[in-house]
Amino acid sequence: MNDMSNTPKSVEAPHNLSAEAGVLGAILYDNNAFQRVADILRATDFYSIPHQEIFEVCSTMIQGGRVADGITLREHFEKADKLQEIGGASYLAELLDSAAFGPEITDYARMIRDFAMRRDLIDIGATVQHRAFKPEPEEDGDKQLELAERQLFDLADRGSSGRGFHSFSTALKESLAMAEAAFKRDGKIAGVASQLDDLDTMLGGFHKSDLVILAGRPSMGKTTLATNIAFNAAQACRREAQPDGSKKTVEGAVVAFFSLEMSCEQLATRIIADRTGLNAHHIRQGDLDASDFEKIRQATEELQNLPLYIDDQGGISISQLAARARRLKRTSGLDMVVIDYLQLLTSTTGKASDSRVQEITQITMGLKALAKELNVPVIALSQLSRQVEQREDKRPQLSDLRESGSIEQDADVVMFVYRESYYLERTEPQSGGEDPASAEKWTKWRQRMDEVLGTAEVIIGKQRHGPIGRVTLAFDANTTRFGNLKRQQPEPDFG
């Protein structure tokens, strides 16, 4: 006799036909019930094909201002020659007998949606398995992982209860909470603070869901400024445990830094130089003595647990970047994203027919969508066109942004880094010897050089939520660091 205990049994996909019948019966009995489930359910959430078709027809009729009941549905399906496919007129009558009344209709709707998501999970798992066994020619492991993550995130977003409209009272509460958080902070900063006081005052910190563009010509220090902001935010990070076991950031930020140009080692060197006050070039060259090396060792120990995560893979697409940011938020939390720099990203489509302007448009739209989706500020560095160099005043303007149309349009904040000393160094006049005019010209140049040396301007060219203008920061080229400008203290009056 054969042992049948190990014979595989077919497993039916999760569903509940009684709940489906209860919801459909309630809608047929009273069309107002549809409004209670319309934001929860879609036709494909129903397991039964006839139930899918009935819900779809009910939805079309009700939203079109018509009555959806046993009589109108019978007429509809008879005309379409589908009455028998849904179980006949008798089944429509059975649905009415199964109608759910009262608050249970929403409970049934959520149950149906839950089963639908579980079925989708099963389908995703099967698809991932099939794709892994029989991949398409262009699908390597990374691409397959990206596709799987995208499917799972879409499903998670579908299951989120936070979709749809928010009442104005909810919006008011969130606004009040933001104002309260700013009020309680010493610096009165609502967003993530950069610890650069004048910049924080102008911006109010970096706000959730904002796309911030930080632009500048080469050697202006935009990567340095972005690194400083990321480091300062991560260093100030403080998280508190919540009743559900999760952690909430109450100060600073968990930061994701996408370095598409520099390696993570180069970024770390800049941060160590900032922390220790040592020359970054000397650190790279190993031009150090024993005390210098001890400073580096101590700084390394202090920064071990810094919530700053660096991804230095070059040439990634906007979809890959988004997938990695979502993964980090899910596993470690995420409060800020920094991208160095925008023009090194590729669009998701990657079509040869797309112009660079079209591609940049897709990228900036994708970054703005990501900022809103993850509810974090996204700071993206950008290059400037060479037309800056053709002007006498080389302070950047919005029109200097490469592919400026989409970048300027999608950004909530546009900032420029400008160092006048960089240009002055390259225009030193001849001292002129005995020539008074040349000597005077050189003296004026020297005076101006002394005024701007060690400083940098951050020009706020656009800000949706606040003023535009300029702030002046201290800049130390030795340690590649931006800092707060020391204010001249008034001389004491002993008179």
From TrEMBL:
Quaternary structure note: Homohexamer.
Family of this protein: Belongs to the helicase family. DnaB subfamily.
InterPro entries for this protein: AAA+_ATPase (IPR003593), DNA_heli_DnaB-like_N_sf (IPR036185), DNA_helicase_DnaB (IPR007692), DNA_helicase_DnaB-like_C (IPR007694), DNA_helicase_DnaB-like_N (IPR007693), DNA_helicase_N/primase_C (IPR016136), P-loop_NTPase (IPR027417)
Function per UniProt: The main replicative DNA helicase, it participates in initiation and elongation during chromosome replication. Travels ahead of the DNA replisome, separating dsDNA into templates for DNA synthesis. A processive ATP-dependent 5'-3' DNA helicase it has DNA-dependent ATPase activity.
Keyword list, A-Z: ATP-binding, DNA replication, DNA-binding, Helicase, Hydrolase, Isomerase, Nucleotide-binding, Primosome
PANTHER family from the UniProt entry: REPLICATIVE DNA HELICASE, REPLICATIVE DNA HELICASE DNAB
Domain SF4 helicase, chain residue ranges per copy: 185-489
Keyword Hydrolase tagged: yes
Pfam families on file: DnaB, DnaB_C
Entry-linked SUPFAM superfamilies: N-terminal domain of DnaB helicase, P-loop containing nucleoside triphosphate hydrolases
NCBIfam families found in the cross-reference section: DnaB, PRK09165.1
Catalytic activity: ATP + H2O = ADP + phosphate + H(+)
CDD domains xref list: DnaB_C
UniProt-listed Enzyme Commission number(s): 5.6.2.3
Protein's name according to its UniProt entry: Replicative DNA helicase
Molecular functions (GO terms): DNA helicase activity; hydrolase activity
